[in-house]
Amino acid sequence: MTEPTDISASLEGVLKDEILRMYQEVADNSRSEFHFFHGREAAELFEYAPEWLDRAPAGAVDSFAGVGNPHLRSNLQPGETVLDLGSGAGLDSIIASWQIGPTGAVIGLDLNASMCRKAEANAAATGARMECRTGAMESIPVPDSAVDVVLSNGVINLSFRKRRVMEELFRVLKPGGRLSITDIVSAKQLSQSIVNDPKLWAS
Amino acid sequence: MFRLLEESGFSRVRSAVVPRFRFRKASTQASAEAFGVKAVMMTALKPAAS
What we know:
The complex is a heterodimer.
Chain A: H1 6-28, H2 39-45, H3 50-55, H4 58-62, E1 81-85, H5 91-100, E2 105-110, H6 113-125, E3 131-134, E4 147-153, H7 162-172, E5 173-186, H8 192-195, H9 198-202
Parallel strand pairs in A: 1-2, 1-4, 2-3, 4-5
Chain B: H1 2-7, E1 11-17, H2 26-34, E2 37-45
Antiparallel strand pairs in B: 1-2
């Protein structure tokens, strides 16, 4: 495992704070305009089923800040255990819960403890079952080989240690398990000015 | 990210561009395009024998 140097660890700490701030702002001020699409407008852009968006609590839909639709290829089955990496206000977890049914389980993971509680409340409001754990994607608080499917939507790009995240995803998946993620990638190396700017990195 | 998945042991790694992804602000979108930034859907499998 590659451990961060003191400098990158410091920058990673600043970045973590900026990520928490930005996504808390989306959740608290969902009517504000951000440089990315969010809420129902974004979900519809990425072809989330209208009936899902009608059925889900407004608090989960309005705070949605994904970059695509990981459900299009997740092929979730009743009884499966799903990890929603970066679960935010819970929309993807709630949709997953509906698909896996009462015999399945959804584990959310988010850096922000208050966001976890919000996601659980949103899930409970629709009868969906979800347990959200507070933690980092570089050190996922889930045992080895515990989940059938990992979902993630616009989160892994935020990590300074993406290789570590991939290793963690591999660890928590059962043999034969799968992942369905949507995320942002760059064809070119980002400039150092972007890498060193937490606001730009977090966005 | 595709390469990282393969190097981490995943198999059957597949990716496709999210066709309708874009940033709201034109200036952000222009910067993103200059760096080849795009949204992708990715699927991968942890081999059954692992």
